[in-house]
Amino acid sequence: MTRRKTIKAPRRPAVRLPASLARYGAGEEAAAGTYRAADLEPDGDYDALEFAGLDLTGADGAGARFMDCALRRCVLDAARLPAARLIDSVLEEVRGAGTDLAGATLRDVELTDTRLGGVQLHGATLERVVVRGGKADFLNLRGARLTDVVFEDCVLTEPDFGDARLERVAFEGCAIQRADLSGAHLKDVDLRRASQLTLDRGVDRLAGATISPDQLLALAPAFAAQVGVEVRAAGDVQKRH
């Protein structure tokens, strides 16, 4: 008797922000007119703060730590946040193009309705993260480690998971377009509820993932090409040159 494999679901974060958050940039410096929204500090320490409606374009917060923080309706275009740590925090309606989060750590984080383009997360660690709604184009997760991550009702256009490690990751209601899985390692990855799934590279790395019968049919040409099988109808005549 064959046993059915149990798919291990990701553990979703339970982000509970403090009852009241101090408003970042609402102190004496702002009143004096000397405060600038983009003045994040490298290796800065930000606890229980709300960043709301700020233009943080080009900000440099390399190595900074954000604990119990909320970033709402902020612009992070070309912001430098490599090796930053975001813990027990939420990002809502954040926009970012070319944001550098290489080697960053996101733990117990919720991202809601974000619009991201060319964001660098290579070598990053994502643990107990939910990405809900929004769109991400050319998301670079190369060499990243994702554990207990849920992508829910979002659009991922040409995401790069090359050489990444995904464990207990689920894609629910997502459109995954032209993903790169080359060199990736998957374990307990659930793709069955993705509304769209197309791969540019790495179909051979789907071991460790669960897909639906419809997805299997859609991916059949890629599987056949991977193993060198030519598929033609019985009545087709091969042209000879």
Q: Short summary of the structure?
A:
This protein is mostly beta strands and 241 residues long. The protein has helices spanning 28-31, 213-227; strands at 22-23, 45-47, 49-52, 65-67, 70-72, 85-92, 95-97, 105-112, 115-117, 125-132, 135-137, 145-152, 155-157, 165-172, 175-180, 185-190, 196-201, 209-210.
Structure commentary:
With 241 residues, the protein is mostly beta strands. 8% of the residues lie in helices and 36% in strands. It is built from 2 helices and 18 strands. The longest helix is centred in the last third of the chain and has 15 residues. The chain starts with 21 loop residues before the first strand and ends in a 14-residue tail after the last helix.
Net shape: elongated
Helix content: under 10%
**What's the total helix number?**
2
Overall pLDDT:
89
How are the elements arranged and paired?
Layout: E1 22-23, H1 28-31, E2 45-47, E3 49-52, E4 65-67, E5 70-72, E6 85-92, E7 95-97, E8 105-112, E9 115-117, E10 125-132, E11 135-137, E12 145-152, E13 155-157, E14 165-172, E15 175-180, E16 185-190, E17 196-201, E18 209-210, H2 213-227
Parallel strand pairs: 1-3, 2-4, 3-5, 4-6, 5-6, 6-8, 7-9, 8-10, 9-11, 10-12, 11-13, 12-14, 13-15, 14-16, 15-17, 16-18
